[in-house]
Specification:
Layout (H helix, E strand, L loop, with lengths): L1 H7 L1 H23 L17 H16 L16 H13 L5 H20 L4 H13 L1 H6 L6 H18 L3 H15 L9 H12 L3 H30 L7 H19 L3 H15 L3 H5 L9 H14 L1 H12 L1 H4 L3 H7 L10 H7 L2 H9 L2 H31 L2 H20 L7 H5 L2 H23 L1
Helix pairs in contact: 2-5, 2-6, 3-4, 5-6, 5-8, 6-24, 8-9, 9-11, 10-11, 10-22, 12-13, 12-15, 13-15, 19-20, 21-22, 21-24, 22-24
């Protein structure tokens, strides 16, 4: 009987083992053949970056005070508590952060299984294709060995989507799916922008039963609000703002609009950021916070939004063009150079190739990629790979809309919506391969579908 069960889940066992095993190998390679030197007394594993320090600080505040505080000792309204709670739990139980990557390996292994299961809605080969792309994605291998929110966020999003795809016509699973997406949002606030994609699928799955669509939409929202509602109330009490985080306002005031201003007036990014920091200082009544560099709080959010809106209103069409063109990097930036720099294979500062292309400075672009053979190799391989994935993804959506029945069609459409919405929200001046990683699993699903759909079409034409 046990042999029969093992045989029935053979593919799942292979996928989980391959995913976890590959990440373990990478973990031990970094640990025993270190190519980077961590700051202070941190271990070689996990990899700790600048964002990691903030998550660890938040986790430490939970352990020491029982409160969610920022490094200044004030209530934290920038990060959300989902990931720091995982870190705090790991530290409390094991007294070290060394165990975190291994927890994230397991989380990533389950995520690969969930993606495989979603892919089975179409076929086993499409499921395998999506899972293998996820498993061998270099960004996934790196980030699961790093103190970052993405592995946990991806797990919750895939779990919520798997539940709604397989059980959309049932009451309890719909509620649970909303709760799980809410959990993802408590890890990364960007999770809230994925809600429309889930609702589109629910509507399509239950069409034309309009009353049932309304009822299940409210049910999904109820689950979602059960998770994020208490945090919204907390922020309303502490900061008088019904917002999850100050991240969006900070990005617009300190990234999107300053970099747009820099391009518009031909000045450096650093000088533009300084100008906008002075504008926030002038607008905000909390000048001590701004002077100390603690602007990323919800009590400063209205003034950061004000500064950003004023700049956008002055040049709305130019800003829209800037934002959309910069967002293209979300899809085709190579990502490998960032990985190379994080593990010190590339030691010199990286040129912003997207900016050079955006400016039309092809001479500087050629010089930047030619100065280091590893940089050139990583750029060519990464750019070519992601260009092919994006092409296959678009092919998958187009083929799926034409040839699939409604449920399968809207699995593809909902997946594509998540990718596009994430590109728009996490694009612009902050477009980065790391943000693409948050929804890369859906890109892999679409790309796998597109590849096999195109292959089937070619075979039909050949015969």
């Amino acid at each position: 009987m046990n042999i029969e069960k093992t045989s029935a889940y053979r593919n799942e066992i292979i996928i989980f083992s391959l995913d976890v095993g590959l990440r373990l190998i990478a973990c031990f390679l970094v640990a025993f053949f270190p190519v980077w030197v961590p700051a202070e007394s941190l271990p070689l594993i996990p990899i700790v970056g600048s964002d990691s320090i903030d998550y660890l600080s938040a986790a430490q505040s939970i352990l020491e005070t029982g409160h969610f505080l920022n490094p200044a000792g004030a209530p934290n309204s920038f990060e959300l508590p989902g990931y720091p709670l995982l870190l705090a739990g790991a530290i409390a139980v094991f007294s070290t952060i060394f165990v975190v990557p291994f927890l994230q390996h397991i989380i990533a292994g389950i995520s690969a299984l969930l993606l495989y299961r979603i892919g089975l809605v179409f076929s086993k080969k499409i499921a395998w294709g999506a899972a293998l792309l996820f498993i061998f994605d270099p960004a996934g291998i790196l980030y699961t060995n790093t103190i970052l929110t993405e592995p946990l966020f991806i797990f919750f999003v895939l779990l919520a989507f798997w539940i709604i795809v397989t059980k959309a016509a049932h009451i309890l699973p719909t509620l649970i799916s909303g709760i799980v997406l809410g959990a993802a949002t408590m890890v990364r606030p960007v999770g809230e922008i994925l809600v429309p994609s889930f609702l589109v699928f629910i509507g399509a799955r239950l069409w034309p039963m309009k009353k049932k669509i309304i009822a299940y939409t409210l049910l999904f929202f109820t689950g979602f609000l059960l998770m994020i509602g208490p945090w919204l109330v907390r922020n309303k009490i502490l900061f008088d703002r019904f917002e999850l985080s100050a991240v969006a306002s900070w990005q617009f005031a300190y990234a999107h609009t300053p970099l747009f201003y820099a391009r518009l007036h031909g000045i450096s990014d650093r000088k533009a950021v300084k100008i906008f920091h002075e504008r926030v200082f002038t607008a905000s009544p909390y000048k001590e916070d701004v002077r100390a560099g603690h602007t990323g709080t919800l009590r400063n959010a209205p003034y950061m939004w004000q500064v950003a809106r004023e700049e956008i209103k002055a040049h709305p069409f130019q800003f829209a063009l800037f934002y959309v063109s910069r967002s293209a990097r979300f899809f085709i930036s190579d990502g490998l150079r960032d990985i190379g720099q994080r593990i010190a294979l590339i030691k010199e500062p990286l040129a912003n190739l997207g900016d050079l292309i955006f400016k039309g400075d092809l001479k500087s672009f050629a010089g930047a990629v030619a100065q280091n053979r590893i940089v050139l190799l990583f750029f060519i391989v990464g750019f070519a790979s992601w260009s092919l994935i994006v092409l296959a993804m678009i092919t998958g959506v187009l083929f799926g809309i034409v040839r699939e029945e409604r449920t399968k069609k809207f699995v593809l459409i909902a997946s594509f919506l998540m990718v596009i919405i994430m590109a728009l929200v996490a694009g612009g001046a902050v477009a980065h391969p790391r943000y693409r990683f948050s929804v890369s699993s859906f890109m892999f699903l679409l790309a796998s579908y597109g590849f096999f759909a195109a292959l089937d079409k070619i075979k039909q034409i050949s015969y």
